[in-house]
């Protein structure tokens, strides 16, 4: 997979490159030190995955993620930051990030995260996952509304609520399974949930597809 590294700290960039370039299936195609450079490098390097810091000058990682996903929905973005603040976590997920990892993550877990998002899955640092589950349990977080989803995302989510697999959805909509996975990743990010089951439960609970 082709990976773009985005961080405003040269030492972090050097460390990421040192580890990732030793992995046989990972190719570092570029680096950027802020969100604006990230947008330029995505156009130039055509990465499969972007490892994105949050707090950067000129344009932060959340805004950069949103713009990347709008123009290149197939590009997966993993937030890699020192911030576990939910004021950063939730906006990043809603912007379309497929993963959120802290910089203290074990390098092996980072590699697993890269492989997971390339397979259409989401991946959260255990600390982030626990925080989100706590907020959901307390009812402190609000999911996105039905109107936050695109028409295509609404159709796919409705199929999910009917219990259809990615393969079945792809066949019915005449699109590829990879495209279905990309849409599902975006749906999960916008809804702030971790998997398709949670998304389906929320949609059914709020009667999104009735009437």
From TrEMBL:
Keywords: DNA-binding, Phosphoprotein, Transcription, Transcription regulation. The modification 4-aspartylphosphate is found at residue 53. The keyword DNA-binding applies. Pfam families: GerE, Response_reg. One of its GO terms (biological process) is regulation of DNA-templated transcription. The keyword Transcription regulation applies. PROSITE patterns: HTH_LUXR_1, HTH_LUXR_2, RESPONSE_REGULATORY. CDD domains: LuxR_C_like, REC_NarL-like. Residues 142-207 form the HTH luxR-type domain. Residues 2-118 form the Response regulatory domain. One of its GO terms (molecular function) is DNA binding. This is Two component transcriptional regulator, LuxR family.
């Amino acid at each position: 997979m082709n990976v773009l590294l985005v961080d405003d700290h040269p030492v972090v960039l050097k460390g990421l490159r040192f580890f990732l370039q030793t992995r046989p299936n990972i190719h570092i195609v570029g680096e950027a030190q802020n969100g604006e450079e990230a947008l330029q490098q995505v156009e130039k390097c055509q990465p499969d995955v972007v490892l994105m810091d949050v707090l950067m000058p000129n344009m932060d990682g959340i805004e950069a993620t949103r713009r990347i996903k709008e123009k290149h929905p197939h590009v997966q973005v993993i937030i890699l930051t020192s911030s576990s603040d939910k004021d950063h976590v939730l906006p990043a997920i809603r912007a379309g990030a497929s993963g959120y990892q802290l910089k203290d993550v074990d390098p092996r877990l980072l590699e697993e995260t890269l492989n997971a998002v390339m397979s259409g899955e989401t991946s959260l640092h255990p600390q982030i996952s626990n925080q989100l589950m706590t907020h959901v349990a307390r009812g402190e977080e609000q999911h996105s509304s039905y109107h936050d989803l695109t028409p295509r995302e609404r159709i796919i989510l409705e199929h999910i609520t009917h219990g259809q697999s990615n393969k079945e959805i792809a066949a019915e909509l005449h699109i590829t399974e990879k495209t279905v996975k990309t849409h599902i990743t975006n749906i999960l990010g916008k809804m702030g949930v971790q998997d398709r089951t949670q998304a389906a439960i929320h949609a059914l609970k709020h009667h999104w597809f009735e009437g």
